[in-house]
Amino acid sequence: MERFTFVLADVLEYRPKGDESDFRWDIEGWHGGDYKRLWFKSEGERNTAFKADYDIDFQLLYGRFFRKYYDFQAGLRSETQTFGGQNVTRVQTVVGIEGLAPYRYEVESALFISHRGDVSVRFTITKNFLVTQRVVFQPRLETHAAVQRVERFTTGSGLNNIEFGLRLRYEIRRELAPYIGVSFDRSFSGTADLVRQEGGDPRQVRFAAGVRMWF
Asked: Care to name a GO molecular-function term for this sequence (predicted)?
C-alpha cells in the first residue's frame, strides 16, 4: 500500500496586544495510507514578553478510516502551561473523530481523560468560503468543556469557553497563504472566575496576522 505524508499549519500567527502580545499555532500532520495513519497535532500560544507564559498541547494519535470522510483517532496528549513562573504538565488519553461534514464543514472532536480521571472535551468546526480563486474567507469555532474543576489548568466544570475566529487569506499558492483575522473568546462560569483570579479577562477580542501553509 502506498504511503504519504501531509502537514498543515492551519493557524500560525502573531496577535498584538501590548504586554499580552503572543504567537499562536495550530499544526497537524499524518503519515500513512487511505485507511491507517499516524497523526501528530500541536496547538498552543506563547507570550512574547520576557520569561514568557505559554500553553502547549501536543498529541500523538493512531487514526483509522471508519466511514467516508471520517477518521477515528486514539492516542496520548501532553499539555503544558506556564504562568507566572509556575509550570504544570499533564498527560491524557485521547479519543476523537476528525472529518468532513456535509457542505464541506471540517469538524474535529476529542475526548480527553487524565491519569487522575479528569474528563474534558473539545470541538472545532471550520469552513472555507471562496471569495475569488485566490481569496478565501474562513470562519472557525472552537469550544471546550470539562466535567471536573482543575484549578491548576484554569479550568472550571461545565462549559469552559467559546472562541469564534474570522480569517481572510490570500493564496499566493495553494500551499502558502498569508492572512489577517480577528477572534472573539469568552470564558464561562467557573473558568471565567479562575481567569479573573489570575488577572486575565474572560472576554477578549484579538486581531491577528499570520500565514497558513501545507506540504
From this structure: copper ion binding
Render pLDDT for 35-55 as a digit per residue (tens, 0 to 9).
Answer: 999 999 999 999 887 556 889
- Expressed as residue numbers, the domain containing 97 is 4-214
From the centroid of its chain, how far is CA 202? 18
Q: What is the pTM of this model?
A: 0.93
Cα 29 to its chain centre, rounded Å, is: 13
pLDDT per residue over 159-211, tens digit each? 999 999 999 999 999 999 999 999 999 999 999 999 999 888 999 999 999 99
User: How many domains are there within the chain?
Assistant: 1
**CATH number for 119:** 2.40.160.40
What are the DSSP E strand ranges found in the chain? 4-15, 22-32, 36-47, 54-67, 70-83, 86-101, 105-114, 119-126, 129-130, 135-146, 158-170, 176-187, 203-214
